[in-house]
Amino acid sequence: MMTMRATAFVLCSASIALSACGEKTSGAARKADVPAFQGTTGAAAYAAGGWKAGDQAAWEQHLRTRMQGQNEYARVPSQP
Amino acid sequence: MARMKFICDAERCIECNGCVTACKAEHDVPWGVNRRRVVTLNDGLPGERSVSVACMHCSDAPCMAVCPVDCFYRTDDGVVLHDKDVCIGCGYCSYACPFGAPQFPSNGTFGLRGKMDKCTFCAGGPEANGSAAEFEKYGRNRLAEGKLPACAEMCSTKALLGGDGDVVADIFRNRVLVRGKGSEVWGWGTAYGKPATGSTQPAKPEGKKS
What we know:
The structure holds 2 protein chains of 2 kinds.
Chain A: H1 2-18, H2 56-67, H3 72-75
Chain B: E1 4-8, H1 18-27, E2 37-41, E3 49-53, H2 62-66, E4 72-74, E5 80-82, H3 92-96, E6 106-107, E7 112-113, H4 132-138, H5 150-154, E8 160-164, H6 165-179, H7 188-192
Antiparallel strand pairs in B: 1-8, 2-3, 4-5, 6-7
């Protein structure tokens, strides 16, 4: 009888003690982001033309072209 | 596309603060927060150099490593962003960042620290691209509009280059070859020297890097 009580006590204690191990964090979970090539939902008037929202290859090519705008050696041809 | 990166050409920066102004205006950044700033070394002395500094969107970002609530994430384009709804404003990222990028708005009379704010490479945050909620928390999402960061595109001398790491490194390399000097890229080694596992190797401009 004593052994059963002791076993029950140990099991109850263990279940209470370990109950927190399965607790999920209460903090806010980080939200998933949408890739930039999907385009913008608002202020479409400000979006640069020359590519279609959702077309990753077109978006990348458009940005590469735009990046070359920072290269004055490409913008201004060298003198012969 | 590889990874989005910034390069500041110290030989060209004239400390006009146009990048700082463009950033503040584009994103409606609150008073007291500077996502980008211009640092001048050896001010007034021969060899004076100015460098435009903001979040470099590091390959192995220390801010991501130390954040206790895991609010940071990296986009497919290599831009390091964070979720302000998760940020608790503890300031650990500020201590970890070698560039002083994380900024904290002062809220209230007693200087209560708000949620962290930093350069987003004009890529907004986790809210819907171009939404009012995204603008309010993170500013404009120019990448989703098919544009590059406002600071780089507004730079009058094109000292600040922003975009795909391979492309901007090629532009900078060509400049160094033409002028024959000024190959030091401030912060490049610190930010991109240790590429994350599986990421693209950072392009290495020729010459000495700091």
